[in-house]
Automatic annotation (TrEMBL):
It comes from Sphingosinicella xenopeptidilytica. This is Ester cyclase. InterPro entries: Cyclase_SnoaL-like, NTF2-like_dom_sf. Pfam families: SnoaL. It comes from the Bacteria.
């Protein structure tokens, strides 16, 4: 198996596991200098990233994470995904709507020696969840 394929498989599994509440691969794959550049909720370091993910898991009942596509190389990883569930707790400053939602996102990691040193990530959480709360 090529290095690129190993990176792709490992990082993809990390995302799937994380949205099931298993952060073990995050602690293995993320570098101590890891930074998440996310316009919605940036995270500086592994602890802040895990806290952000846990807040999402806690706020969304029946959360489902699906991979649309992923790619890997020796120095990068990318993934496009869909997250769905029911918004039952406050998250991103938005009160729970109790309604089902579906958001899409993309994340691009910079990889060094098999570890992520940073990610550019964006998903349309606020737009979708805000629209749900405004429908009432």
């Amino acid at each position: 198996m090529s290095t690129a394929e190993r990176v792709r498989q490992r990082f993809t599994q990390m995302y799937v596991d994380a949205y099931r509440g298993n952060f073990e691969l995050i602690t293995e794959i993320m570098s101590p200098v890891f930074v998440c550049r996310n316009p919605l909720n940036p995270a500086d370091g592994i602890e802040e990233l895990v806290a952000m993910l846990q807040a999402q898991i806690d706020a969304f009942e029946d959360i489902d994470f699906k991979v649309r596509w992923s790619f890997g190389s020796e120095d990068g990883f990318g993934i496009a995904y869909v997250i769905s569930g029911r918004h039952v707790r406050e998250v991103f400053g938005l009160k729970p709507s109790g309604k089902r939602f579906e958001v899409t996102g993309v994340s691009i990691h910079e990889v060094q020696d098999g570890h992520s040193i940073g990610v550019y990530s964006s998903a349309n959480f606020v737009e979708v969840l805000k629209a749900l709360t405004e429908m009432d």
